[in-house]
Design brief:
The chain has about 375 residues and is mostly helical. It has 2 domains: about 180 residues, Growth Hormone, Chain: A; about 200 residues, Up-down Bundle (Growth Hormone, Chain: A), CATH 1.20.1250. The protein is globular, with a radius of gyration of 20 Å.
Length: about 375
């Protein structure tokens, strides 16, 4: 699992942070780039919420883990020829169904292994962060030496390595044979008020990162940042996130969820206000430490919602909704907004992100009231950071 986490997040660096540069280098404008990323995010939301549980109902988790990277590689090769705008949209849609779904598949496999004691989730997931950092460094070095053009072939080679590693046995036959029980738990989740409020709040926080993820590297490049500096930008974010995760054991079990998510909300507003202002690149570089609050603290807070307020049987569908709505549908909407604004005014694109995060403040108040009226249901050790 450690090798697969490392390999996946190595490729994820390119897809998450350099994809706009790759498409810009191929002559697409900001609106088209935004539309292609939005399409992949929408199909990703469908895949995580519907297709993955359906596929896992009929195929064992071990089979899904092996097939998905190879299918992603085959579709990814279609990005190599000049497809034009229509072709780009089609390939992006199909690729969005497959490649991003590898993340929840790996997370599910690791979580089940951790429940059975066959692996250490934290140690395995740490290799994912290291893979992202390594990917940022390699992408930055390649861009510095040879420009942006080699990044797509590099991405596909790394994806081939990930596919090769998927052929190795998972190591726990029980986990490999696991099948989904379906999606019938969404109704009970809707009756969990604390969960619903926290989910809505985290969707707004995650969605406010859309302009940064889709166009942050392109924006910095247009400001004159060298490729090596872009790599430093990208490396600082997961490092800040890792610090938050490391320190969370000191406060997460005692702090109110509303307080943690309030900090993430305010941090997001501050972060995107800084990006909308005409500030030196050095200030934007320093603002990367806020990722530990805007993303890391949000993750810590939401995991505490799962541990304190949901029975164990609702944790898996809750995580599916969290990924589908936050990383998928919500981010898709805000990516489309950013794509329509980024060429004309990057400041307006990041202002839209700040407003998106700001919309979470009323939810913070409602969450604090709901949390105060309900005693925690107890710690759920099945969920790990």
């Amino acid at each position: 699992m450690q090798v697969q986490f490392f390999a996946f997040f190595f490729t994820w660096t390119t897809f998450l942070s350099y994809w706009s540069l790759v498409l810009d280098d191929r002559g697409f404008d900001g609106a088209t780039i935004g539309a292609s990323i939005t399409v992949s995010l929408v199909t990703r939301a469908l895949a995580v919420a519907l297709l993955f549980p359906l596929a896992n109902r009929y195929a064992a988790l071990g089979t899904v883990t092996r097939v998905l990277p190879w299918a992603s590689l085959l579709v990814g090769l279609a990005f190599l020829p000049d497809t034009g705008t229509a072709g780009l949209m089609v390939v992006s849609a199909v690729f969005g169904l497959l490649y991003p779904t590898i993340m929840p598949v790996l997370e599910t496999t690791a979580s089940l292994g951790a429940q059975r004691g066959s692996l250490d989730y934290g140690r395995s997931r740490l290799w994912g962060s290291l893979g992202f950092i390594a990917g940022a460094g390699v992408n930055g070095a390649v861009s510095e030496l040879w420009g942006v053009a080699p990044l797509l072939p590099l991405f596909l080679v790394a994806l081939a390595v990930l596919a090769a590693t998927s052929l190795a046995p998972i190591g726990d036959e029980h986990v490999a044979a696991q099948r989904s029980e379906g999606m019938g738990s969404w109704g009970p989740l809707a009756r969990q008020r604390v969960f619903v409020l926290a989910l809505a709040l985290t969707v707004l926080i995650q969605s406010s990162h859309a302009a940064y993820y889709a166009f942050g590297s392109l924006h910095l490049a247009r400001l004159g940042a060298a490729p090596w500096l872009l790599a430093v930008f990208l490396i600082l974010a997961p490092l800040a996130e890792m610090v938050t995760f490391r320190l969370s054991s000191r406060f997460a079990d005692r702090a109110p969820v509303a307080g943690m998510l309030a900090l993430a909300t305010v941090g997001s507003v501050l972060r995107w206000v800084l990006w909308m202002l005409p500030l030196p690149i050095g200030v934007l570089l320093a603002s990367q430490v806020l990722h530990g609050i805007t993303y890391g603290m949000m993750q810590v807070g939401f995991v505490q919602v799962l541990r304190r307020h949901l029975p164990a049987g609702l944790v898996a569908p809750a995580q599916g909704l969290y990924s589908a709505l936050g990383n998928g549908a919500g981010t898709a909407v805000m990516t489309a907004v950013a794509g329509g604004l980024i060429d004309g005014s990057p400041a307006w694109a990041f202002a839209a992100m700040a407003l998106c995060a700001l919309g979470g403040l009323p939810l913070v108040v409602a969450l604090a009231r709901a949390e105060g009226r309900r005693l925690p249901a107890g710690r759920r050790e099945t969920v790990a950071l």
